[in-house]
Amino acid sequence: MAGFPLPSTKGRLLVAAPPLGDPNFDRSVVFMLEHNEGGALGVVINRISDTVEVEFEEWSPLLATPALVFHGGPVEPQALIALGKLDDGRVDAVELDRDPVLLEPRPLAVRIFHGYAGWDAQQLDSELEAGVWIVATAEADDVFTSSPDELWTDVMSRQPGRVAWMASAPADLSVN
Fold first, then answer.
1. Is the dihedral of CA 91, 95, 100, 104 positive or negative?
2. Sign of the CA dihedral running 148, 153, 154, 155
3. Residue 24 CA from chain centroid, whole number
């Protein structure tokens, strides 16, 4: 358990440090929506879902490419979370039950996730102290990347110092 409160990761990225034995998060990039003393919540932004088909015809003009639903994490896989990119570069939650034409401010792009990543109180802080995650600055385009399969490498590459070296680590460290 963390011995002191760590700074909140809200609005930042958690990048899985290799090797992360949990297949839910190995080489994942998580955009953090909340992190406080009660726990933490985020969505995995680099995994396209292959199991959920959801029709969002009214949202299709706003869906970021690839215009697919993403796997946001292992918690509550039936839950849908949408994030929108605002014209000032901020990323904010979008209510899918609203008419997208009436949204104010209207997002430039929207990405939809099923499920989310969640941590109990102090759980994420303990994982951060153990070096399971690398905390990185989020760029608005990270959430809406058109190349989600390359996002982990891209985010790792732009980190300072030795952390950037991990970007070239093979997925299976035994083949190194």
1. negative
2. positive
3. 12
Dist CA 175 CA 157 (whole Å): 21
Give the C-alpha distances (Å, rounded to integers) separating 33 from 17, 74, 77: 20, 16, 17
pTM given for the model: 0.91
Please give the domain boundaries of the chain with CATH numbers for all domains: 13-167 (3.40.1740.10)
For residues 117 and 77, what is the distance between their CA atoms, to the nearest angstrom?
10
Q: What tokens were used for 121? A: 């109180």
Residues 78, 67: Cα–Cα separation, whole Å:
19
Q: What is the mean pLDDT of each run of 10 residues along the chain (176 residues)?
A: 70 90 90 96 96 78 93 95 95 94 93 97 94 93 97 95 79 56
Helix (H), strand (E) at residue 123 = helix 123-129
